Amino acid sequence: MTGATHDFTLLPDLALRTLGGAVVWANDESFAEKENLIRPEESTYSPATFGHKGQVYDGWETRRRRGSVGAAPDSDDCDTAIVRLGVPGVIAGVIVDTAWFKGNYPPKVSVEAIAVDGYPSAEELTALEGWTTIVARAAVVGDSANPFTVDSAGRWTHVRLRMFPDGGIARLRVHGVAKPDLRLLDSGPFDLAALENGGLVTDCSNRFFSHPQNILMPGRARVMGDGWETARRRDKDNDWVRVRLTGEGVLAMAEIDTSYFLFNSPGAASLTGIRADGSEVELLPRTVLRPDTRHRFGIDAAEAVVEVRLDAYPDGGLARLRLFGTLTDDARTRLRAEQAELS
Q1: Which of 13, 135, 173, 309 is the most exposed place for a label (fewest CB within 10 A)?
Q2: What is the 8-class DSSP label of residue 155?
Q3: Which helix (H) or strand (E) holds 329?
Q4: What's 182-330's CATH class?
Q5: Are 10 and 173 in contact (CB under 8 A)?
Q6: What are 151-190's pLDDT values in tens digits?
Q7: What is the domain class of 3-178 according to CATH?
Q8: Domain residue extents for the chain
C-alpha cells in the first residue's frame, strides 16, 4: 500500500526543500547524504553506480552499526536525523519512503516533533528535551512508501526521524496544514494564498499530471513540472481549483502565472471569492490568458472572502497563483486564538 491511497497526501509536504525545509542534523551519513531526504522529486536509482563509498543511493544511508550486533529487536540503538519544516504546521501524516533500499533499509522507524521559536542551531536542537512522539516505533517495508497517519493537534516546527538500528531511507514526507508565525504576517498586505502563509488548496477538478498544491509554493516555477497540470478535457466543462486563504481577507491583486506552459496553458481563467457564509462574489471575470506569462490583475471587490475558486477554461496548466490582500481584524483575532490553542 502506498501513501497515495491516504487522504493526507492531498495536503502539502511541509518538509520539502522547495518550501524552505532543511535537514539540519544527522548523527551519521556515511553512505548517502541526509539532504536527500527532503528533495521534491521521487528517488531514482542506477544499478552498479559506485562511488568511493560504494553504491550511490538517492537517499539517506548510514553505516552498519556494529554496536547493534546481537542487540534485542527493541533496542534503542538507532540513527537519527532532524528536519526543520519549511513552514510550521499541524501534521496529518508522514511517509517514510524506502525506495530502492532493499537489503539495507531499517527494520523500524519512529518520528517525533517539537515546536521552537527562531532558528536554533543543530547543537541546540539535539540537546532539547520535550520531543513528542507522533509516529511510535513501527516496522517498515523495504523499497516502499510507508505511510503513517498522525493524530496530533499540535503545531510543530521540527521533526526527528529515527531508524532502528541503521540503514537507508530515500525520502521523508511530512504532510499537513501550514500554521506560520502570525507575527510575520502583521507587517501589511501579503499573499493570502501562499502555503508558507497558511494558504491551502482544499479541492480541485483534476490532478492527473501534477499536484495542485504546487501553485501555492514559494518562488517562481523552474520547469513545467513545478506547477499544476490537468488532463485534457473531452467534455464541455472546465477545470477548477479551490484555495482556502490564510484567513478572511480583502484581496487587492491576483497573479496567475502560466510560466513554462507554452502549448497547454488555459485559454482563460476567472476568480470567484467565497464569503464566510458560503455566498460568492466575482473577483475577476473570465479573462484571456497567454502562454508562458505572469499575469497580474487588480481586484476591485472590497468584500472579505475566506476562499477563492479559480476556474480554468477549459483545462491546462498553471505555474503559480498569488492572491495579495489584507486580513480582517476578526480573522487576526481568530488566528491568534487558534495559534494559542496549538501551542
Answers
A1: 309
A2: -
A3: helix 329-342
A4: mainly beta
A5: no
A6: 988 999 999 999 999 999 999 999 999 999 888 777 778 9
A7: mainly beta
A8: 3-178, 182-330
